[in-house]
């Protein structure tokens, strides 16, 4: 994004570029298959162990023959679905003859009731049994993040403030977890360290640029180095806001501000930059925060406080 006039109202175009929602089509199939393969090998070959093991599903191979079977994925609780398109890839990894069919009308992002059938899988009984836990691990985890996000979005009510995730994600699972946040009605903050300049307090401390002209210079330096990227700067006190605005920052990250301080900061920033509140955000505090006129609120709790959704695989 090129430099802009300091007096221009830039919040709408910046806000549109700042928050995104990952779609299934944007996820790399190779990345998905790599995760599935690792999960499969954990079960079948003890991936991660330093000693050799007997490979395969020893229980199923001892008891189950070549019969075909069908089973339903069933919601054991109200939840937001996430992971339906992943199920065929998982069963395909365990055997080529399994077919997964979503229940009529079911899709990722849909809120369902306890007892609702989500999808049906049909194939060799042995393959279904071997793949069952891997499929449920992915499906329950992602639906849990989506469900947690849906609850938090509901707490914001009709506020125009958008709820963002952050980079506190399970290592290796970030894109799937961010996709789950999007399915739950939330929005995605930066995907990694590569797609946005986010100057945090430790960056400023390391550069000895926590206030005044040094702080403004740090923002200008980031703009000069990455003119096409959005520039966000974290502040933890009101006195830091004027220098970053003067330097032309796109987004001001207001870290651990009280509601009263947030109101003052929103008024001070006006339309010169977008505002994001972060730090100590809870589902209980969201209704009040949503009334302050913030552009964004970010929370790690969407992912790291999410419980797995309760989904069962019921044999037909």
Describe, in plain words, how this protein is organized in 3D.
It is a single chain. The chain is of the alpha/beta class. The protein has two domains: 159 residues, TIM Barrel (Alpha-Beta Barrel); 136 residues, Quinolinate phosphoribosyl transferase, N-terminal domain (Aldehyde Oxidoreductase, domain 3, Alpha-Beta Complex). The chain is built from twelve helices and twelve strands. Strands 6-11-10-9-8-7 form a six-stranded parallel sheet. A four-stranded antiparallel sheet has the order 3-5-1-12, with helices on one face. Helix 2 packs across helix 4, helix 4 packs antiparallel against helix 5 and helix 5 packs across helix 6. The radius of gyration is 23 Å and the shape is elongated.
List the helices and strands and how they pair.
Layout: H1 11-18, H2 29-45, H3 58-63, E1 68-75, E2 79-80, H4 86-94, E3 99-102, E4 111-112, E5 117-124, H5 125-156, E6 162-164, H6 174-183, E7 197-199, H7 201-206, H8 212-225, E8 231-235, H9 241-246, E9 251-255, H10 259-269, E10 274-278, H11 286-289, E11 296-298, H12 301-304, E12 311-315
Parallel strand pairs: 6-11, 7-8, 8-9, 9-10, 10-11
Antiparallel strand pairs: 1-5, 1-12, 2-4, 3-5
